[in-house]
Predict the structure.
Amino acid sequence: MAGMQLTVIGCSGSFPGPDSPASCYLLEAEGFRLVMDMGNGALGVLQRHTELFGIDAICVSHLHVDHCIDLSSYWVARRYAPDGSRPPIAVYGPRGTAERMAGFCGEGVASIRARFEIHDLDPQSREIGPFRITADRMNHPVETFGFRVEHAGWKLAYSADTGESEAVVRLARDVDVLLSEASFQDSEKNPPGLHLTARQAGEYAARAGAGQLVLTHLVPWYDRGRSLAEAAESYSGPLSAATSGLVLGPGAAR
Ligand SMILES: [Zn+2]
């Protein structure tokens, strides 16, 4: 059987862009579908790539709107499906995920938990379906987890949102693909502890020995050509910018 594949559903940074929802990635292997993040607009585009209820588990990196708000829309879909409410689905997120979704949905926490089997993320490894998922804490204003995903020898790291952090290097050690946020471009004005520049993403990819770097969380007001050029100055391996619909991984050709 072909290996895992990752489909970029949304890669727009901080808010949706004209060509992409905010953060959302679909991982598939052995018939199991895991969604990482569900930012604004993700649930719509996700349905181009899988059935609405074809998802088996969800990981949420952090509770900023551009990474989680469509999880509340997904709760609505599962709760009010015309042929009956869907059974609880596993959701892995930071502490407070149930309370945040309750606020978004205008529901009580118990009502959210009736549809979402919520597990608190910790900096550790666990099996989710056929995937081995390692979470690590990132450098961001709210509790945020980046992920390393392994399946049948293929390895991917996803930075989520982060300022400068050695956790990026730890998660991305010898991965086939580093999917790194690159929200910023070179500037003296970038606030610290929030996001990476494309150049920093390239530096981490080089230090980690990543086989390929894909820039993501690209903010619509920045020119992605310049982001790629800045990353290319610090990383000499295969480099690209994510687009909605991009498919990566050994299963990509199937
Ligand atoms: Zn964020």
About this structure: The chain has seven helices and 14 strands.
